Amino acid sequence: MTRSASNPSASCTSTMIISADTAEPPSPPDSITTSAVNGSAPSPLTGDQNPSLSSASSSPPPELHLPVSWPQDGKLSLDWIYNLMACFDWSSKNLPPSEFPSVLPVHVFDSLILVASKMLHKEPNCVSVDPFQPNSDTGDRAASAVVVVGDVHGQLHDLLFLLRDAGYPSQNRLFVFNGDYVDRGAWGLETFLLLLAWKVFMPHNVYLLRGNHESKYCTSVYGFEKEVMAKYSDKGKHVYRKCLGCFEGLPLASIIAGRVYTAHGGLFRSVTVTPSKRLKGKRNRKNYSNPDTKTLSLGSLEELSKARRSVLDPPWEGSNLIPGDVLWSDPSKNPGLAPNKERGIGLLWGPDCTEEFLKKYQLKFIIRSHEGPDAREKRDGFDGMNEGYTIDHIVESGKMITLFSAPDYPQFQATDDRYNNKGAYVVLEPPHFDNPVFHCFEAVTPRPKVNAYYDYEEVIDSDEELDLASMVTA
To answer: Is residue 213 annotated as a catalytic residue, yes or no?
Structure first.
């Protein structure tokens, strides 16, 4: 059963059928692309079509095209993406990480990351998601549902389930991903590359936002850098640098149908702008200064649009504070804005700020992510993340929601006492997109056996108390 924002007390179950076209699909027809893009996408990952789901084998099944090759015309197809999903799923269960280049050669990685990076860097800081798109055949403007996804953290098999459960991206189903694709989970590279492939194939139907873990600092601490090195060995540094460059291009936020604001962390401060003395040869120079914490004020979408997002690590000091706020901030039960002292970067914002932001821009919801069960258990006054989402602020103009899409998180824990949380995603339905429907799901089990890429016994569970002084601020 699903749960709507207007009825949050309804139970959420681990298995759901959203609608007829997202039930277990039939075998793909010979001509797969047309039917899938029109909204009846068949699944490449059902048990009878993907033998890796039923029995492990060191030899790939004949229907997989391995190694994955880049299309000669440079245009991705749905067949290509389905094959990529099936290959990643099979290799995660049958091959050691060092053999990953036999699945996705470096030159194919290079082609995908180049096209995706160019596409992402051209998008604005805050993308406008328009569900009212013209039909490619008739030209009529039909409204599409929008699926919003929170943190996935390299949990590939749970992402594959989510895509199958929600229905794959199509002409009548858009996706907005709220960041944190990598780290902690063992398949961050596959997760990120799969989503890039969907983005390249359907650039106006799939939107990828940046999370705080799409940064140099976090990926060096929580495993993604070492994962890439393990999978590409002597080419690992090259692949990692390309991923970092792509991270810099990820937009920071989205506005869906003019009704819903989404970002990984949430809201952000206004950055004070003061004219400076005219210098010879310099016209219209402005100084951006850190606002005094006593006079913090909420930032505007105009300021967000002008922030410089192309940084490896969003600064926690200096003039370019908005990206750090958007990626690292957390809601508070207390009114006003305050420095986020627990994390050392970003802000805490209260219900009054949620109301101010929603009212100013005539929005109904803020959907953010960023907090899993490990972070939430340390937050007094907030609900836990057992169901994969919480409704944290209810104000006159609407609601503020935290969404987390990685079930049984984190993948690696130092104790036997696991959180056993569910993951969740949100479906926004036309025509008004103002009654989010929550879909909860449990982790895909058993997970393939694999070693962690970071010392999870020593590294703290949540992102609090990080050594932010070592972050690059360039």
So the answer is: yes
